[in-house]
Amino acid sequence: MRKLQSLMMTAAICGVFACERPSEMQQKYETHTATEGDFTYEYVSNDPLGARIYTLDNGLKVYLSVYKDAPRIQTYIAVKAGGKNDPSDATGLAHYLEHMMFKGTSKIGTQDFEQEKVLLDSIERMFEHYRTLEDPEERKAYYTKIDQVSNEASQFAIANEYDKLVSQMGAKGTNAYTTTDRTVYVNDIPSTELEKWLKVEGERFSMIVNRLFHTELEAVYEEKNRSLDNDQWKVYETLMSSLFPEHKYGTQTVIGTIDHLKNPSITEIKNYFNQYYKPNNVAICLSGDLNPEKTIELINKYFGSWQPNEDLEAYAFTPTEGLKAPAEKEVFGPSAAMVTMAYRFPGESSNSREFLKMKLCDMILSNSSAGLIDLNLKQKQEVLDASCYPYEMNDYSMHVLYGVPREGQELEEVKDLLLAQVEKLKKGEFEDWLLDAVVNDLKKSQIKKFERNSSRAGEFVIAFTNNIAWEDYVDDIDEMRTISKDELVRFANEYYKDNYVVVYKRTGEDPNAQKVEKPQISKVSLNRDKQSDYLMEIAAMESPKSNPMFLDYQKDIKETKMKSDVLVRYKNNEENDLFTAYYLLDVGSNTNPKLSLAVEYLEYLGTDKLSSEQVKKEFYKLGSNFGVNVAEDRVYVYLDGLDENMDKALVLFEDLLKNAKPDQDALDKLIANKVKERQDIQKDKGRILFQGMMNYGLYGANSPLTNTLSNEELQDLTAEELVMLMKELPTLEHRVLYYGPREMDEVVATLNQHRELPEKLKPLPEQKDFVKQDVDKTKVFWTNYDMVQAEILFLAKGNEYSAEREAASRLFNEYFGGGMGSIVFQEMREAQGLAYSVFSAYRTSSEKAKADYTLAYVGTQADKLNEAMREMKKLMDNLPEDEKAFNTAKASLLSKIESERITKSSVLFNYESALKKGLDHDIRKDVYNAVQNMTLEDVKAFHQNFIKDQNYVICVVGDKKKLDFNVLKAYGETRELTLEDLFAFEQKERVAQEQ
């Protein structure tokens, strides 16, 4: 593997200098077959993933890749059916079925299926009748009957038992997703639990039981309402419907119409399952620490008897010509204005070479560094933001371009600027070296992507569900190398015509605002204290134990000094030829708010030798990236890329830091854009809640967020002072972190050769800290936002950080507010359907001598505000006691730690985090040892001491016309927070900041 990757990187480096593309340089990707044991598999020569592809007798596809970064396996079970497979009169089936796949079977999630089934069959018939009713009052009365029978059926159910099954194995990331073309089920499991997981999934996919149906329907309603509150989702749906008016991509949505959601059909969902959830339409995609021969034996053991659908027909569509003229649409909503455009292309599965050309066009236009949009629009600050991306689907694909206007700029002008870049592409007005550099960039990204099992297994999912032979899928990079500039320009002229859709997203009230009304439902029984015989059977299965591995900082990290006594922390990259180097300074925006703008300004500067555009191009040619990020208490200066070009990239980077040339015109544009960006931030409900209100709730009016330059102060800045601020950074006390393939002595020699440092570094300025506020009584803050839902945060200051609290807090979080098996999720979503998204956590401080805090979040319909807040507060103050749920949480936490491995550059940053907390060792070892002896009493004690009866700051974002203020006032003093209160961008008088 290492040899192959090195060859690939050599080819990439060659391409930087516009090498020719002789055919003999291309890798050969040919499919071969081999037999091991009782199973035959396919493999592709020169495959960087070393994939084995099996096909069982029943048609089930199995993709396996070995990558032993940790004793874990990323699992995806992919079904080749998505939203486009929904009947046109019952949209949303694929998505709703995805939800129901977590409800169990005749064995999972039930105490007595025979008795339960009688009631479930009755509920199915009742929903079929409910669909025929039209009178609102009659429907409401009948739904009450459905609710009654559902509650009776819930007495036999065991809520979220599937999640308990995989949680006790130590699974992470348990989830699923549905797109137009596929439905995929996700788990990241310890490799020692593979057989248990396969046994459970084999049972799970054998049948569907629509238990707890109407409470899950509430969750889907919530999800639909969240999409109606999401302006970008509305833009996406408008793009799809306009670009594909005769295809299901455009005629229906994955989540379904409101009318269809109001009239669900259990019968249709079961029919969909029986048609598509069959082995000849499914693939199991695994990557991680696995033995292929043993793995395929286990898969055959638990899935081999699964019966195929012999009558299954592949989805077919009749291609249409597409648009003949631009289609212009408008979308309104409270978020910032922007323009989004899309062109239609062949699907990824229909014509691979055409699809690859579209990806190359995308990168020529925007690659975050040297694309036409990057240099002509972003670098010159002609717009606030702009980019593009390919949207990959089976039957058709889209190339999406978007732009955000500057202050006073019309959306139509942004559209014209984007179109002008497309015209440059069509005329071939880009330098010859760029095409080679783009392919190299894609190769580099692929190498980094293949360092993650989630990405490796994800490639299998796309290849399978898009009907692409693995041989054709893995040769993309080499295939791209055969595409000449002339061929690409001809392609661009063929596809980029007046055949696009443009959607103007304007700020304003949506005249077509919709909402899914909630039916009245009663709280169902969760039966958390119950366990099915099947769960106990799985728990009794013995699994080999994975021994935890903790970091030994003294052994895992090397330290040395470079000149000027700069500390260098080193970790060797033994996997590929990429490097990353960081310069870390323990000073940030809390101490000097000007730093944030200064580092942004660097992006637009050149030197006395190179313009800013030339700087960008040179870095891109070298396959390198640079940047400076500013956190509240730290500055990260970084450089990464191809190891072979590290010296050249370092010279270029150091020259920019030392010789950046002030450009007042660039600064004036940056400041104008910064003011506009601040206006846009105040239109983003996510930023309002999780930045503005959260900071206000934790710190009060004087917070790290409000510790910024006012708009007036921005105008007073000069190019010279910001450049001087940047030039000063390397002269301040700092340290270097390096992760790459070079030996440590060589790294130090390289740094010493190319970095110019003073003999003695300057001391850092004294840090400015912000202290979380004490709350003597519960307070409620609310901010108005035009939205269907309401979003709520409960915040409370905790005690000063203590390492001794880490174990109890992590176990409490796992039990109370973690995944789908947690107390919060079960009570709020499973039992009552009060929220689609809900979680809670005790967050330990990232720094010693600073306070922890408690957080709880609920996203709910505005008309459920009372019930949602009441039930969440009740849970926070009265911890439900469930010994079985506790044992599952404990087993899950221990298993996760046992199979967790901190590797690569994460080792360096884990050490940095430990030092920040005042630790000299891996805290996970303390947590693991302590948790083994903990009981539910320990979790109860933690809750009693740190969670129960806290005085909370409650933050609510919602539409003031929909919020019930009597409900809010019942919790305490209520006050509206304006956007100026939260962000303070317009403050005229500010405390002077020392530079």
Describe this entry's structure for a reader:
The chain is of the alpha+beta class and 995 residues long. Among the domains are: 67-316 and 516-540, Cytochrome Bc1 Complex, Chain A, domain 1, CATH 3.30.830; 553-662 and 718-754, Cytochrome Bc1 Complex, Chain A, domain 1; 779-983, 2-Layer Sandwich (Cytochrome Bc1 Complex, Chain A, domain 1). It contains 39 helices and 25 strands. An 8-stranded mixed beta sheet has the order 1-2-3-4-8-5-7-6, with helices on both faces. Strand 17 (624-630) and strand 18 (635-642) form a beta hairpin. Helix 3 (113-130) runs antiparallel to helix 4, helix 14 packs across helix 15 (411-427) and helix 23 packs across helix 29 (719-728). The model is unreliable at 1-25 and 988-995 (pLDDT under 50).
Concise account of the structure shown:
With 995 residues, the protein is an alpha+beta fold. It is built from 39 helices and 25 strands.
Keywords:
alpha+beta, 995 residues, 39 helices, Cytochrome Bc1 Complex, Chain A, domain 1, 6-stranded mixed β-sheet, disordered N terminus, disordered C terminus, 8-stranded mixed β-sheet, 43% helix
Strand order of the largest sheet: 1-2-3-4-8-5-7-6
Q: Quick one: biggest sheet?
A: 8 strands, mixed
At the first level of CATH, what is the class of the domain at 67-316 and 516-540?
Alpha Beta
Q: What fold name stands as the CATH topology of the domain at 67-316 and 516-540?
A: Cytochrome Bc1 Complex, Chain A, domain 1
Helix and strand composition category: alpha+beta
Number of helices: 39
Distance N terminus to C terminus?
50 Å
CATH architecture of the domain at 67-316 and 516-540: 2-Layer Sandwich
Please provide the count of β strands: 25
DSSP strand (E) fraction?
A: 15-25%
Gyration radius from CA atoms, angstroms: 29 Å
| CATH-defined superfamily of the domain at 67-316 and 516-540 | Metalloenzyme, LuxS/M16 peptidase-like
The global form is globular
Helix amount: 40-55%
- Mean residue pLDDT: 92
Runs in which pLDDT lies below 50 for 5 or more consecutive residues are 1-25, 988-995
